[in-house]
Specification:
By secondary structure, this protein is α+β, with helices and mostly antiparallel strands. It has one domain. 23% of the residues lie in helices and 27% in strands. It contains 3 helices and 6 strands. Strands 3-2-1-4-5-6 form a 6-stranded mixed β-sheet. A hairpin with a 4-residue loop joins strand 1 and strand 2. The longest helix has 14 residues. It is globular, with a radius of gyration of 15 Å. The relative contact order is 0.23. The C terminus is likely disordered.
Length: 137
C-alpha cells in the first residue's frame, strides 16, 4: 500500500492505494494521466483509473510529516508557474516511523530514473474536464 498526496498552489488531497505495491507502479499511473493544474482533478483522474482496474482507493489526509502510517508516500506538486512541473517527492518511513524524503525530481525525470517507457500523455481525464467533441453538421 502507498499513500499519494497531491498539492496544487491552493489545495491538497490524499489517497491510500491498497493494491499499489511500489513507487514505480504509481509513477507509471501518474505519468499516464493528462496534465491538469488542479490537485482535485488530478486525484479524480487517478481514482477513476484505479477503480477501473479494481483497485481500492481510500481517502487520506494530505499530511506528510504528521503521517505515522509507516507506508511509502508519493507527493506530487502541481504548479503551472514552475517549469518542469509536476514535481514528485518520494518518502519512506524512517527508523522512528517519521517519513524521510528519499527522492525529489520532476515527474518526467523520476520516470526516466526508474526507466519507465515514455508516454504521450493521452491518458484519461476526468469527465468533468474533457473537451466536448465537435458537433456534427
Amino acid at each position: 500500500m502507498l499513500k499519494l498526496v497531491i498539492r496544487d498552489t491552493h489545495h491538497a488531497a490524499g489517497l491510500f492505494l491498497e493494491q499499489v505495491d511500489n513507487v514505480r507502479q504509481l509513477i507509471a499511473e501518474l505519468k499516464a494521466l493528462k496534465r491538469v493544474p488542479s490537485a482535485s482533478l488530478y486525484l479524480e483522474g487517478l481514482a477513476e483509473r484505479c477503480l477501473r482496474r479494481g483497485w481500492t482507493v481510500i481517502p487520506a489526509d494530505p499530511l506528510i510529516r504528521g503521517c505515522t502510517s509507516r507506508t511509502h508516500i508519493v507527493e506530487l506538486h502541481l504548479d503551472p508557474n514552475q517549469p518542469g512541473a509536476p514535481f514528485v517527492g518520494i518518502y519512506e518511513p524512517g527508523e522512528d516511523g517519521t517519513p524521510c524524503r528519499r527522492l525529489h525530481d520532476s515527474l518526467e525525470g523520476l520516470a526516466s530514473r526508474l526507466r519507465l517507457p515514455p508516454t504521450n500523455n493521452t491518458g484519461t481525464m476526468p469527465a468533468t474536464v474533457q473537451q466536448p467533441s465537435a458537433l456534427a453538421a
